[in-house]
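Q: My labmate handed me this sequence with no annotations at all. I'd like to see what the chain might look like in three dimensions before we decide whether it's worth expressing. Could you predict it?
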Amino acid sequence: LREEVEKLPTLSTDGLRGHRLQRLAHLALGYITMAYVWNRGDDDVRKVLPRNIAVPYCELSEKLGLPPILSYADCVLANWKKKDPNGPMTYENMDILFSFPGGDCDKGFFLVSLLVEIAASPAIKAIPTVSSAVERQDLKALEKALHDIATSLEKAKEIFKRMRDFVDPDTFFHVLRIYLSGWKCSSKLPEGLLYEGVWDTPKMFSGGSAGQSSIFQSLDVLLGIKHEAGKESPAEFLQEMREYMPPAHRNFLFFLESAPPVREFVISRHNEDLTKAYNECVNGLVSVRKFHLAIVDTYIMKPSKKKPTDGDKSEEPSNVESRGTGGTNPMTFLRSVKDTTEKALLSWP
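A: Here is what I predict for the chain of 349 residues:
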C-alpha cells in the first residue's frame, strides 16, 4: 500500500463539488492515511505523511472544518450505504464503503455505532420541543418530550448490545484499534505526524472516539450534566472532542449551551411527574454509559491483559495497551462520566 500511495500524483480537491463528495474524499484520504502510517499494525510506523496525500487532505479538512485524521464523523457517520436503496436502515441492508483488515470487524463496529446514532436521533429531534416547553412553562409538553428522549435512549442501548454479535474482541483490539489510533499521547508517534508540504513541524491529533459523537454531548448539555473539570479531566477531553465534530454539530452544542436551563426549571416546579420524566432521561444516559463500560472491558481491558501469542508483534507496555483510540484511559474516563451522570438524578420529594 505504501508503495502505491507514494506513486500517486498530488490529488486536486477543486473538482469535489458539494458537501457529499467532499466528505467522501475526506473519508477515503483518512483511510489511506491510517493505513499508510500504521502499515500492518507492527512497529513499522511512518512519521511523515507524503505531500501528495497530506496537501489535499489538509486542504479538504480546512474546507470541511474537520481535522486531517480519520474521525468518528468519517468512519461512522459517512462510511455507509444501503444494499437496497429503497430498503430500511438496518444492519442487514447496510454495508460500509471502506474497510481495514480484520474481516467484518470494522463493518460491525462502524455500523452498530451508526445504528446507535440513528436510534438516539429522536432525542435530538425532541430538543427544540424541550426548549420551547421550558420557555412557555408548559409542563405537559416538557414531560412528553423528556419521555420521548428516554424512550430513544432505551432503543439506542438495545442496538448497542448488538456490538457483541458482530465484533470479535481480539480482532478489534489487535487489528482495528491500531488503525483507528491517533498520534496524540502515542508511544509510537510521541511527537505526532508530519504533514509534508503543509506544516514544518509534526501535529498531534486524537484517533476516532465515541466522545466525538454529538448526540450524547447534546443530551449532557440539555440535561445540565456537568462533568468533572480541570486539567486532563473528562470535561476537558469532551470539549476537545468537539473539534473533531462537523462544524454544524459543534454549533448546535454551542447554541444549546445558551438555551433555557432544563434542570433548574424542573427543580423549580416541584412537580413529581416532571421530576420522574427528567430522571428517566438521566437514567437512560446512565444505562448507556454503564453498558459502554462493559463494552470497553470486553474489547480493550480483557484483551490487553492476555499474553500475546508467539507470532503477535503488537506487544506494548500495558499502560499504552489499554488506552482508547481517542488517547484516554477509557475505563477511568467512562467511570467518571457515568458517576457524574448518576449524580444529576433529582430526589423526590
